[in-house]
Amino acid sequence: MSKILVTGGAGFIGTNLINSLINDFDEIIAFDNEFRGSFTNLPSGKIKQIKGDITKYSDWDNLPKDIETIFHLGAINGTKFFYEIPEKVLEVNVKGVQNLLDFTRKHDIKDILFASSSEVYGFPKTFPTNEDVELSIPDPYNPRFSYSSSKIIGELLCINYSRKYNFKHTIVRYHNIYGPRMGHEHVMPQFIKKLTCNEKFIVEGDGTETRSFCYIDDAITATKIVHKDNTFENRIFNIGNPEEVSISTLIKHLAKISGKQIVPEFQQTVNFGTKRRVPDISKAESLGYEPKISLIEGFEITYKWYNEYYKNKNIQN
Description:
It is a single chain. By secondary structure, the chain is an alpha/beta fold. The chain contains 10 helices and 13 strands. It has helices spanning 12-21, 57-60, 79-84, 86-106, 145-165, 187-196, 216-228, 247-258, 282-285, 295-316; strands at 3-7, 27-32, 47-51, 69-72, 111-117, 168-174, 177-178, 202-204, 210-212, 214-215, 236-239, 244-246, 265-267. The strands form 4 sheets. It has a 7-stranded parallel sheet with strand order 3-2-1-4-5-6-11, sandwiched between helices. The protein has a two-stranded parallel ribbon with strand order 7-10. A two-stranded parallel sheet has the order 8-13. Helix 4 runs parallel beside helix 5 and helix 8 crosses helix 10. The radius of gyration is 19 Å and the shape is globular.
């Protein structure tokens, strides 16, 4: 009987991944403390829901011992949290991986996937950015890099434990994954909230910053493809969509989708992230991955969901 554990299984990527894996495993265990997500977003049936804290090994002891595969998505994400609770981001993201690997070693689990991030590249100098670009922590005093540093540590732990204890590891570096229920700490829901709730449309930066957004369905497809691969010895994969867009253009897309006029007020901020981000996904493409959903299409789906959410929230308040 095949069993898979998904930590962070109640979160944005976790719930979408589990929905996609239902027919691939006999049993799926979702492990989460529901800090940012909810088990209510999971289907009933084959999904075993276990509420717990990945930083407490005693909670890992409540999990089944005959697990074959672990997808480790459990972490604190969201730019807002990087600045507000950097020490908690580091605690959860690093201790969580240490406990994952201790659990893996103790129960002789032979297959893990670790969810990393494009943030590990810091301020990359090469575009599109491939998996061989050096990782960096540009400024240890900038709390933003609490997240990226925790992901760099997580990658190193997975690689070296895998070498020592002989299990398969896969590392996926997600690049700005978006879609309904992605949370409220990211640029798209923040922009939609400002528009729907008639808030002042203040934007950090000058609008020329670029990002490459990947719709959740494409990200899940890519994750499953690279995980199944057994040909690459270096098992680090960029997951994303190379369709690059400036923040100013993203705002124009939002205006077109919503049918509303937007007059953004740009403001320079300290401790800002990289000016540009666009992934080289040729490694994943060589295995058959191809993004299917354009930015306009995905943004429209996301807008409709969040617009309805924020309108209902305003009515209730």
